What does this fold into?
Amino acid sequence: MPSGSILNKKVTFQPYDITVEVEDGENLLKAALNAGVHINASCGGEGVCGKCRILLEEGTLECPDNTLLSQDDWNLGYRQACQCRVRSDIVVRIPPESLLDKKTITRRRSGISLRPSPINVAGLKEEGLYNPAFQKKFLKLPPATLTDNVCDLSRLEQGLNKQYGLKNLTLDFLLTRKLAKAMRQDDFQVTATLDFAQRRSRNPRLVDIDPGDTTGRHYALAVDIGTTTVWVQLLDLAKGEIVGHAADYNGQLSYGDDVISRILYSQKEGGLETLQKAVVNTINKVTQGLLKQHKLPVEEISHITVAANTTMTHLLYAIDPKNIRLAPYTPAACHVPPVRASHLGLDLPKHVFIYSVSSVSSYVGGDIVAGVLASGIYKESKLTLYIDIGTNGEIVVGNQEWLACAACSAGPAFEGGGIRYGMRAARGAVEDVSVNPQTGEPMFMTIDRVKPKGICGSGLINLLAALLEGNILGPNGRFRDDLDTPRIRASETGREYVLAWADETASGEDLVVSEEDIENLMRAKAAMFAGYLTLIDSVGLKLQDIEQVILAGAFGSFINLENAITIGLMPDLPRERFHFVGNGSLSGATLLAFSRELLEEERRVADMMTNFELSETPGFMDQYIAALFLPHTQEDYFPTVTERLRAG
Amino acid sequence: MPSGSILNKKVTFQPYDITVEVEDGENLLKAALNAGVHINASCGGEGVCGKCRILLEEGTLECPDNTLLSQDDWNLGYRQACQCRVRSDIVVRIPPESLLDKKTITRRRSGISLRPSPINVAGLKEEGLYNPAFQKKFLKLPPATLTDNVCDLSRLEQGLNKQYGLKNLTLDFLLTRKLAKAMRQDDFQVTATLDFAQRRSRNPRLVDIDPGDTTGRHYALAVDIGTTTVWVQLLDLAKGEIVGHAADYNGQLSYGDDVISRILYSQKEGGLETLQKAVVNTINKVTQGLLKQHKLPVEEISHITVAANTTMTHLLYAIDPKNIRLAPYTPAACHVPPVRASHLGLDLPKHVFIYSVSSVSSYVGGDIVAGVLASGIYKESKLTLYIDIGTNGEIVVGNQEWLACAACSAGPAFEGGGIRYGMRAARGAVEDVSVNPQTGEPMFMTIDRVKPKGICGSGLINLLAALLEGNILGPNGRFRDDLDTPRIRASETGREYVLAWADETASGEDLVVSEEDIENLMRAKAAMFAGYLTLIDSVGLKLQDIEQVILAGAFGSFINLENAITIGLMPDLPRERFHFVGNGSLSGATLLAFSRELLEEERRVADMMTNFELSETPGFMDQYIAALFLPHTQEDYFPTVTERLRAG
It folds into this structure.
């Protein structure tokens, strides 16, 4: 008898109290996705990340034995959702560490507003760079008569020539369908929207037409598509102002935490389309919220600019990213021509085109190029090191003459990956830490001041620096074994440090950092540091030649610079050389919308950036091994840290 | 009780023996459209043309009294399909004159093949004009390695630069989705399709990519969309040859015979979309037949060029043609930028764009501009008169220095409209006629040599000339009343001439030409002739200055020149100055596909053509009235005809 597709099992998700009916044998993670219930799944359901832990409260699940769960957790009822099949009506609970907390994406810290896009519009105007590619022109056209009955399009073209000296325009086909009505609605007074971006020597393009004078109402969107978070910034082109911004988690998170798991997911049947729709839905949702908040109709948006890493860019355009993952790591396209946004599923007017920032290589994407554009290093004489830390730390070195770049496979440690109690910078994450060198007792604060759930990346850096400065941790990443404190104890894989006891934590278990965790962090920081050195060395320069260090990215904004230098993640250069630019990717996308010159030259900047594959670059491996120490095996790279640690 | 939508009435159409079920009260013409049964409907169902006559054989129809049918016809069972509602199961017969006969579209005549497109490809090559905008280039690219892992697109661009010196290309977005796979399928050997048309200074555009070397297989389509007939020509761009052509009636015929009824139909709810789909379906059907016949896959087509009158162009692109019909007769757009063909519903590969020839005004369309391009008059020094006769006769006068053009509302007389037994040039149409001046007895031949159904336009010209030369008809368009022949008899509106008796005809009734019919023909020819004179006069020239007359269009190809001059439709100039170019519109579309230079300059030629609204041009009305005579009131315009008629 064929089994059919009978939805006869009920699955209830707590704490949401959402129930869905599924087929017998349905995968539990899939059931959660269908229910709209979010469970972390870093690996896209491969079962290797162990992030999708749920607690079985009632009923029966069919689960394999070879999961990443400890026997204790198993006995408590923990299961990996992606590995289990539903075999009866069940009730499951999503534990705090598997929940995403949205509020903290846009958190403020230490009283300083984190601006996602520190664009200085006034400065842009002073420099003469405020010159949006998309502009509106008001026209009073002579009405048609029997002795002057040229086609409506020619009348519009003649008006643009006569009133604004514009000639040889190209045009959006769809305009031809709107012309006749728009021109007659307000007695041949119209506002034309034009695109002046001279990409590849194209002539100005007629984009849209409205009846009457609408020149005062003209908006654009700038978008940063991060692997984790999507930012949308609403721009007033008529006034040259940022109206507002909003963010949400990238809807693709349900299919994998990092670019590699997304690429793997894209290779499944229908996977590429699913991922494409997921990110488009996120952009749509965030945009709708922004427009509603600012009471603007979507019709007044004329274009959208996007910056994203190479994989995110491929997925946005539904270009197969397969070869990004496979040696020799060739993206299909590092630049994509303007495309009608509605063609990609974006809920924007038909005449809106989407422009994206060019990428350099598989792992140096448009987000980095956008940051380079936003920080202006491509036109400065100062030798600059530009750093964006994440799962893949990206580095750019250079100035107006040349730019070299590379990606470091730092691994997900700074995003909480591979760290037992690592988590994103969300509610309940330990962020600020100090440790009493005498007693080994910690003091810490969590985001939103709630019971700790885990430790976020900046918290890990701070903890590591505190343990190192307190001489509780040795430069080799091992805990001292001669301290009289219950905080340090033996674990299965070495020693571990108890940051919070079970009764103090959200999960009700001890919050610890193990030597294994620290090893992972050291690998990550070593990869970054070896990356800087190799890149600087490959162009015949020394670390001390760097005149300016720019830290980009959300993580870069939250980092405690002194602590990051202490553990050897950041170079030990005079502190005044460091600058934080926040979300450089979003800033770059915004600049493209505000400045025709930048929209025109973004590809030139991308083409100017020489990509280094570090794994193929002589010396990188030696540098990496030398950096597997706190702060570094070569003390002269870290003079101030060495001095302080010795003094301490 | 709501009536619901119950299909409980059977309608059987004879002679096809097709039965459909319809709702009670359904319109009979609509039932025929649903059944796929074609009935002529010149007026789009307005009830004013009287062309959709059917014969009710069984059952009940609810019909109004105020139809165009005579009482006799009504008693015989004739009804106007567009005016009737189905009230019982019925059987109706479509009489011969309401059928369309497809075979004769591509008829051959007098042993001479009518080439739809007399393009001299060899001559084009000799002139250096054979240079298609779309070209394929074969590339052997170096495979990607870890030390050379630029994106696939950059690799392709580098190859095109290195092997062919091509730089600064733009590209079709969709290509980015195909690149990775295509490049790896045959070890980085690929064929790129490029578009070199520099319209509005655009750089060459990368259009498509195939694995391996496919340069030998490259095709295009050229299309002429006539109000009545759609021609498609299949072109081999690799060899520079015309592969073949095919035609079919424009599917829009079911919604009206002429451009005005189509425009009216387009104003109905959903009408524009219906008409757009109808013509696209026709192009798809003809193209599929052509490809099947020549065993070519559609994937090898790279672009499509189209020429059509202004209304047909608007309808193809679903641009509202409303103002073409309303004073001051302004089209929405006389030029439409290239559009993705699939966007319009054409069954062609996604990368195929459609290019259309620019129009000049509401009634001088892209078909005429295409004819001007094909005939080359825009680059000749000879003063030329270009004539395309149809419902709207279009006229162009000029040379390489200047071009003036106008449309004459000749009315549908030359297409059989407004003539009681007028019909299209189809099976059973009287074509060649002579009349014995002594007896008044005619001799005639029909197309396909079957019993006469009616008289086509060229037949009417020949009949009129014969009657005039036989002195049976006076120069004022009245039959002589002193002839002893039953062929001439009184009718309700004057006299009429019986060309065939009831027992000789397909319909079983006398086939006659009335003085009213002749008046309509005289109006039509007068409008044309007054048009030439006015246009020539408006540029300060005389008829005798014309060094060349080009007759275009299917009708122009079938016309007997001497007879057309005799009745005053064509000017009485030395016969060697006349040339027939056949379907100039299709020729022009073909040239655009074969020659990048022409594709680039077609809009320049359209812009060069100054449009005259004859109704607004001083002198036209006087000229028109002066021409309402056979051949003309001013004999000196027709010296050879006058001489011959006197001699006769």
In short: Chain B has 18 helices and 29 strands.
